[in-house]
Design brief:
alpha+beta, 3 domains
């Protein structure tokens, strides 16, 4: 175990020694000699052969040469400490390598290097993450670590699957703009409270994306680990949108007001819904928007009743199940087009 630990340490030191050896070649030669010995030992361990004791003794003698002279009685305890430290170094190194591999696989399969906290992954696309509860103790953390591997392996087949946007039975609304005949179908999963979704929708709108594609906008409510919506009032907006999904414009108008417009004080409606509005104020605002498109009080009342009915509740839960379990989405916005899943903000080509 000592020789394996020494190999790990020497491998990490290689970068610095390489720079120093440019100026002092003798340092590089001594390092290279030790590294080859360590590698030879590790290679034998991999093949289940006995390691050279010579290198192990070299390491110990180098570390304890001064101790032997001054404090002979410390030699035995220090040997035990050295063995324990070697085991710890190897365990930490193996864990670090396994974690790095897991992160890279997750990034490839799920679009995020952090399975349970997607938004915290700096290497992935900027998203509003569908996050899970943080482990409270070492046992939960260990269980989560292995669970994440399961999620990654479950998502790997998706990379070799051709996605058909029409395959998923999702409840959706359509943009106001009429799309061209024969336009490709696109599924666009968004949360009304998500700022990245807002930016993505704005980019689509400005690039005339909705004219050249049949976009199906799926209202999705991100739920926090405690069971409440991640964004205040986003569920209310989603409920009204789905209640009015068969209306020619009402469902998407609600989303466009939240994403693209501001109130009389110049504050974005999305900010108002996320931070300021109470439940009743959010409902009142939405219903005022419906009046602006000439919906009658009877129609608004029917929409209100349907929005908070079991029918719409089932739509929201069905969307959630398909998005999280069938499409394996870890962050939104997520779009499905050209046979693939695309996570993160849309960028005009």
């Amino acid at each position: 175990m000592v020789c394996i630990a020494a190999f790990i340490i020497l491998a990490l030191m290689g970068i610095f020694v390489g720079i120093l050896s440019i100026f002092k070649r003798d340092i590089g030669k001594k390092y290279w000699k030790m590294f080859k010995k360590a590698w030879g030992c590790v290679w034998k361990k991999v093949r289940l052969q006995k390691c050279e004791t010579g290198f192990k003794e070299d390491v110990k003698n180098t570390i304890m040469s001064r101790v032997i002279i001054r404090h002979p009685k410390w030699v035995k305890p220090l040997e035990i400490i050295l063995e324990v430290l070697s085991v710890i170094i190897v365990i930490v190194a193996v864990w670090a390598i396994a974690t790095a591999i897991k992160s890279l696989l997750a990034l490839w399969a799920l679009g995020t290097c952090n399975v349970t906290q997607p938004a915290s992954c700096a290497l992935g696309a900027e998203v509003c993450g569908i996050e899970e509860k943080e482990p409270e103790n070492i046992f939960e953390a260990t269980g989560r670590w292995f669970t994440e591997w399961g999620e990654i392996f479950a998502a790997i087949p998706d990379k070799f699957t051709s996605y058909d946007p029409e395959k998923f039975d999702l409840a959706y609304v359509r943009p106001v703009e009429p799309f061209e005949e024969g336009a490709k179908v696109v599924v666009d999963i968004v949360d009304p409270g998500c700022i990245i979704c807002k930016k993505s929708y704005y980019a689509q709108k400005n690039s005339e994306y909705f004219l050249s594609h049949e976009v199906r906008v799926v209202p999705f409510v991100i739920i926090k680990p405690d069971g409440t919506p991640k964004f205040k009032n986003s569920e209310i907006a989603a409920r009204y949108m789905l209640a009015l999904k068969d209306h020619s414009v009402a469902g998407i108008i609600i989303l466009e007001k939240i994403f693209l417009e501001s109130d009389a004080d110049g504050v974005s409606y999305q900010d108002r819904f996320n931070e300021d509005y109470s439940d009743s104020k959010a409902r009142e605002t939405i219903e005022n928007w419906l009046r602006e498109i000439n919906m009658s009080e009877e129609e608004i009342s029917a929409a209100r009743e349907k929005a908070f009915s079991e029918e719409v509740t089932n739509m929201i839960e069905k969307n959630r199940k398909i998005v999280e379990e069938d499409i394996h989405v870890k962050g939104i916005p997520t779009m499905i087009y050209d046979g693939a899943k695309h996570t993160g903000q849309y960028k005009a080509e």
